[in-house]
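User: I'm putting together a teaching handout on how multi-component assemblies are represented. Below are the sequence lines for each component of a complex, exactly as they appear in our records. Could you produce the 3D structure of the whole assembly as structure tokens, so the students can see both representations side by side? Please keep the chain order the same as the input.
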Amino acid sequence: AQKITQTQPGMFVQEKEAVTLDCTYDTSDPSYGLFWYKQPSSGEMIFLIYQGSYDQQNATEGRYSLNFQKARKSANLVISASQLGDSAMYFCAMRELQAGTALIFGKGTTLSVSS
Amino acid sequence: GAVVSQHPSRVICKSGTSVKIECRSLDFQATTMFWYRQFPKKSLMLMATSNEGSKATYEQGVEKDKFLINHASLTLSTLTVTSAHPEDSSFYICSASGHTDTQYFGPGTRLTVL
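Assistant: Of course. Below is the structure of the complete assembly, with chains in the same order as your input.
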């Protein structure tokens, strides 16, 4: 079974609107971390936001917020006030404590922002 | 902070030659470095994990004799693709982590084997 599932191959949004990118995960490890990365066409992987399994509050970083629903095992990324520069591939990833520091990536979602 | 560099950014080589890719953490000490491979429009595939001063741990299906990894210092890891073939053409990305959980990625190296 896939550990990280991103069900949206592509998403389209207009500038200034908010968009939610879905991510569900599967783990039996009680201690884990969830990450979102952005990969523009240049190829670099840019760290956006992190949520620990024991964190009580949803993580926020500027226009990015992580909607963490532990019981549903979901960690959706919300981008508010989309900008043209947000167009990129977005990856959700998980690190399980028992597995060490390796990240498990989802298949990614391509976000296209139009004016 | 947390900058990771990779060199070269692009390399084209002939089949049968070896290519070395460097990954450096510029402003932090990376106790662990990771090497990933990514095919076009696909996700990242972990190849190996390396800790400074010890042998790399390779993922299943990754040939350790073909993809040589050295993590000689807390700021440098190298990946050498030995006897490269066209099927090794890919985008190779390294990442590094220090004392936190977060991995910071390099800009990637696009390898083309002719």
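A couple of points students might notice: DSSP finds no helices and twelve strands in chain A. Chain A touches chain B at residues 33, 35, 37, 42-47, 50, 52, 89, 91, 95, 100-103, 105-108, 110 (CB under 8 Å).
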